[in-house]
């Protein structure tokens, strides 16, 4: 560099220093990955990208596969969500699991049949709709106003829910109204009415007076599936005595002056409805005298009590009373006993009945029997021709058949208190009991069992076939298959009948007319067809409430029934919503067709799984599903159910906005398939986002490495001449694809994620990408082309495995005018080569052994002497010639060392396959371009790059340095 010195004399002197040679930059000569696919996206950009992908890439996906894919369709029948509000994490779990299932078939070229639907009727919608409308009391009693408000409320909820389902990437033909089913649509109603008539004509549907779960707060019957249970409900617990009027013959007349049957109950409000006492003929009963604090009760020395001998100890412990046993009586001797009613004392000869439901686990072995308020009570009284007497109305209020002190009183408010007060002299002991009690799932208020006229399905006639079909179906997750089948069998077996009528306005009316005087049911095919025609014409069934009888029952049909319009009254009952949803298979299945899968939460054992099965067997004598997948419930990080009152609700909308839709989907796949309690927390979703970030980094590298994503652009024959590293990854790719889609077919999505993460981390990143960098960045054109081919297969098959779970990430990475799902990617069976895998596994085993010795040294400066066992030598010699110190073998590339010399172990030291001697070559200088091979000298001329790099740069003859950019 020239330096100029200035002196005061004005003369200039020059000092000359030779300039150093310019450093050559080889970066532009290296084949580095290049891509516009970003490492990450800002939240705003991500949300916009997700919206664009859903509207462009996914909008036509369902229709595309429906039109293009061949073969029998995989049918996933959608259990309808309730159209009553915004979506929660439970909806996200359910719908995303369904979408993962759908996509796992679509990406393999399978045709899929999936029709989303909504359950649009029911009290929750009715109550919310009327509350939102701020309707007055008059409107609450007008069925047409209720129906109008409820329909609009449901439609609004459906639009909101549909928008959010789409925002999660859920595939369906959302814009085609014929590809979505709604239970209030006229075509759905018509099919439901015809199903009802079919079952009625088969004798499987009937009307009867039976005890059912009844909600006074909702004023309607409820199904088991519509109940929740309050574990801390407090009931009175009392022992009450019923005076016998005819005693067992074994009791002498002298002892029979004042004998009482001792009863235990937690529902004293039902005592006025008592009609019998039940006993068990197989039990032994004791005639006892009661004492307390060494004094006789009530001062009546002649009072004696009947109680099961096996329950004496429990009774004494509970009441702190002493039982002095005077006589034992066998249960069968109670057969002809009678007693006086504790409330209606004029009834002096009420019966005793032998009943198997009387057990010796709790109580006294004598059971108060009120057939209007208990199923076992009802059955035993019907068996013995006892007519049912009910004194409680639909609001849970005693009617005029009750004693005057109870008339007009609520049974669950002060009914218990008043009964206890008025039976005080016959109450032996009273306390309270905290126990689990059924409550209305909508109003959260307690229910009662109450006999009323309802429509029922005869489930007893369907049980055997239902159990037979349950045994045939496949159940997932497989680990819980037998327990799940057992649970469903138990639910079907124990169900005595199915009450399908409800007393509300918002629903499908049961299409039955009654003769006013006799109550005779009027129903036939002509009447039903007329109702169906009106439904199609009006596009709803509101006319059932609004139109005069002459329109509902025209003159031609009146003449057929030989009645006048004034002689007929229409039914006021609607169908149970489980009858609505249980018949949805009729919208998506044809003839004897069964869906390949029903996928719902574990609560549907008592709900949709059961109602669909029973109705399909009743109508078609076959199951509506071939397989069930059962998932759990979303709970917070402490395992608590999410609720507004606890303030622990996490919204899927907030999750997808903060972390991304694919992070939400990844969380569902990772946690939604193996546990019944699915923990939700920001920490878990953050972990999902981080896992996706690592996957994104690999996709970015692959995307930038392969340039043209079209598989037609290059080819590679997997011959023995080709790189073992390439063939090894292709062989593992074949196994990976087979394994991951086998897991998809078993709905083990958590294991799919583990499989993908393991393959990305260990096979792609740690092994292949790390080991081929030298050849890929600095190798020959042919080597680079073959690596690109291998990476291309890796990229496309990884995207194929990811697409069902993280479709937005895949489509963003693909970024092509042609959608990813429109191409078909499949590993070739010819790629599978176990001999290649054996060789590579042994080489990688050697690499791990080497890494333990070299620690952080620059391995490219190392030369190895490797003494191998016979087996190891046979495998490794395919990667490196024997007794040669070659620096360019594939084993050198895998081990990332300067040179290797393979020799046989003279004295093998089992179980080790290798003895490694390491020499550090500090005497060599590595090429600045590849940093692998040494710079060579020729005729005392030192060259700046290695021979391999020079060949790649077409400078083999003169090794001249050219100016690089």
At a glance:
The strands form 10 sheets. Strands 9, 10, 11, 12, 13, 14, 15, 16, 17, 18 and 19 form an 11-stranded mixed beta sheet that branches. Strands 4-3-28-29-21 form a 5-stranded parallel beta sheet, with helices on both faces. The chain is an alpha/beta fold. Among the domains are: 197 residues, HUPs (Rossmann fold, 3-Layer(aba) Sandwich), CATH 3.40.50.620; 223 residues, Valyl/Leucyl/Isoleucyl-tRNA synthetase, editing domain (Isoleucyl-tRNA Synthetase, domain 2), CATH 3.90.740.10; 121 residues, Orthogonal Bundle (Isoleucyl-tRNA Synthetase, Domain 1), CATH 1.10.730; 89 residues, Hypothetical Protein Ychn, Chain: A (3-Layer(aba) Sandwich), CATH 3.40.1260; 29 residues.
What would you note in describing this structure?
- With 965 residues, the chain is of the alpha/beta class.
- Among the domains are: 43-191 and 584-631, Rossmann fold, CATH 3.40.50; 223-445, Isoleucyl-tRNA Synthetase, domain 2; 679-799, Isoleucyl-tRNA Synthetase, Domain 1; 836-924, 3-Layer(aba) Sandwich (Hypothetical Protein Ychn, Chain: A), CATH 3.40.1260; 936-964.
- Helices cover 38% and strands 19% of the residues.
- It is built from 31 helices and 36 strands.
- Strands 9, 10, 11, 12, 13, 14, 15, 16, 17, 18 and 19 form an 11-stranded mixed beta sheet that branches.
- The chain is elongated.
């Amino acid at each position: 560099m020239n330096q100029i010195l200035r002196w005061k004399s004005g003369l200039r002197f020059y000092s000359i220093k030779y300039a150093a040679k310019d450093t050559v930059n080889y970066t532009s000569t290296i084949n580095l990955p290049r891509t516009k696919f970003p490492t990450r996206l800002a939240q705003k950009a991500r949300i916009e990208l997700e919206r664009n992908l859903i509207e462009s890439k996914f909008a036509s996906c369902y229709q595309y596969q429906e039109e293009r894919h061949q073969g029998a369709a995989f049918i996933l029948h959608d259990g309808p969500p309730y159209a009553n509000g915004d979506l929660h994490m439970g909806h996200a779990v359910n719908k995303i699991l369904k979408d993962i299932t759908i996509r796992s078939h679509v990406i393999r070229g399978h045709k899929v049949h999936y029709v989303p639907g909504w359950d649009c009727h029911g009290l929750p919608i009715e109550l919310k709709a009327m509350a939102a409308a701020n309707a007055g009391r008059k409107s609450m009693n007008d069925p047409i106003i209720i129906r109008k408000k409820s329909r609009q409320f449901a439609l609004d909820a459906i639009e909101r829910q549909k928008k959010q389902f789409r925002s999660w990437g859920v595939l369906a033909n959302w814009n085609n109204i014929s590809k979505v089913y709604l239970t209030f649509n006229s075509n759905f109603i018509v099919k439901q009415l015809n199903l009802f008539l079919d079952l009625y004509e088969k004798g499987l549907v009937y009307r009867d007076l039976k005890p059912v779960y009844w909600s006074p707060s909702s004023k309607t019957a409820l199904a088991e599936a519509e109940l929740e249970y309050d574990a801390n409900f407090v009931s009175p617990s009392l022992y009450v005595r019923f005076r016998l009027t005819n005693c067992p013959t074994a009791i002498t007349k002298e002892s029979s002056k004042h004998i009482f049957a001792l009863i235990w109950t937690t529902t004293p409000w039902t005592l006025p409805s008592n009609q019998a006492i039940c006993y068990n003929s197989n039990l032994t009963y004791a005639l006892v005298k009661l004492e307390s604090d060494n004094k006789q009760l009530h001062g009546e020395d002649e009072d004696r009590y009947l109680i099961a001998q096996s329950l004496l100890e429990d009774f004494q412990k509970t009441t702190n009373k002493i039982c002095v046993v005077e006589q034992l009586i066998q249960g069968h001797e109670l057969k002809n006993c009678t007693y006086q009613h504790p409330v209606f004392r004029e009834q002096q000869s009420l019966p005793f009945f032998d009943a198997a439901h009387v057990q010796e686990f709790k109580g006294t072995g004598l059971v108060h029997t009120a057939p209007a308020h208990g199923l076992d009570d009802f059955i035993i009284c019907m068996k013995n021709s006892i007519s049912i007497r009910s004194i409680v109305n639909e609001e849970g209020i005693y009617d005029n058949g009750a004693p005057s002190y109870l008339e007009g009183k609520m049974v669950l408010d002060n009914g218990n208190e008043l009964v206890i007060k008025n039976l005080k002299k016959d109450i032996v002991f009273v306390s309270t009991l905290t126990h689990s009690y059924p409550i209305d799932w909508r109003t959260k208020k307690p229910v009662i069992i109450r006999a009323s006229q309802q429509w029922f399905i005869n489930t007893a006639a369907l049980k055997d076939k239902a159990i037979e079909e349950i045994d045939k179906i496949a159940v997932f997750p497989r680990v819980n298959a037998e327990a799940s089948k057992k649970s469903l069998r138990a639910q079907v077996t124990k169900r005595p009948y199915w009450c399908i009528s409800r007393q509300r306005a918002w629903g499908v009316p049961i299409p039955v007319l009654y003769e006013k005087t006799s109550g005779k049911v009027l129903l036939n095919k002509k009447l039903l067809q007329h109702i169906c025609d009106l439904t199609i014409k009006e596009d709803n069934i509101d006319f059932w409430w609004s139109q005069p009888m002459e329109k509902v029952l025209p003159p031609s049909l009146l003449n057929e029934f030989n009645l006048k319009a004034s002689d007929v009254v229409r039914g006021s009952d609607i169908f149970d919503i489980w009858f609505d949803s249980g018949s949805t298979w009729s919208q998506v299945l044809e003839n004897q067709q069964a869906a390949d899968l029903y996928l719902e939460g574990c609560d549907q054992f008592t709900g949709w799984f059961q109602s669909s099965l029973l109705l399909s067997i009743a109508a078609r004598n076959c199951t509506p599903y071939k397989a069930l997948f059962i998932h759990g419930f979303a709970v917070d990080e402490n395992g608590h159910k999410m609720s507004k009152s606890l303030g622990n609700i996490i919204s899927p909308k907030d999750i997808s906005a903060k972390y991304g839709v694919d992070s939400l989907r990844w969380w569902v796949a990772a946690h939604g398939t193996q546990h019944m309690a699915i923990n939700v927390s920001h920490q878990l979703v953050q972990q999902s986002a981080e896992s996706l970030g690592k996957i994104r980094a690999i996709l970015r590298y692959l995307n930038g490495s392969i340039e043209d994503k079209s598989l037609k652009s290059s080819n590679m024959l997997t011959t023995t001449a080709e790189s073992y590293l390439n063939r090894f990854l292709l062989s593992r790719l074949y196994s990976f694809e087979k394994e991951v889609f086998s897991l998809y077919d078993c709905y083990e999505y958590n294991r799919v994620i583990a499989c993908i993460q393991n393959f990305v981390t260990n096979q792609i990143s740690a092994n292949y990408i790390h080991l081929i960098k030298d050849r890929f960045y600095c190798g020959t054109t042919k080597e680079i082309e073959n690596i690109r081919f291998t990476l291309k297969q890796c990229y496309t098959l990884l995207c194929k495995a990811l697409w069902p779970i993280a479709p937005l990430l895949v489509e963003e990475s693909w970024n092509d005018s042609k959608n990813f799902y429109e191409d078909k990617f499949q590993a070739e069976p010819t790629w599978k080569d176990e001999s290649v895998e054996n060789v590579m596994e042994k080489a990688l085993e050697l690499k791990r052994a080497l890494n333990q010795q070299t620690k952080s040294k620059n391995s490219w400066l190392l030369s190895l002497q490797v003494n191998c066992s016979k087996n190891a030598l046979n495998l490794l010699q395919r990667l490196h010639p024997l007794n040669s110190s070659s620096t360019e073998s594939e084993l050198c590339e895998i081990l990332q060392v300067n040179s290797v010399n393979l020799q046989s172990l003279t004295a093998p030291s089992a179980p080790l396959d290798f003895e490694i001697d390491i020499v550090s070559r500090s005497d060599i200088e590595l090429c600045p371009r590849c940093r692998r091979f040494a710079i060579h000298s020729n005729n005392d001329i030192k060259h700046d790059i290695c021979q391999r790099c020079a060949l790649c740069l077409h400078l083999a003859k003169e090794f001249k340095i050219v100016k690089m950019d």
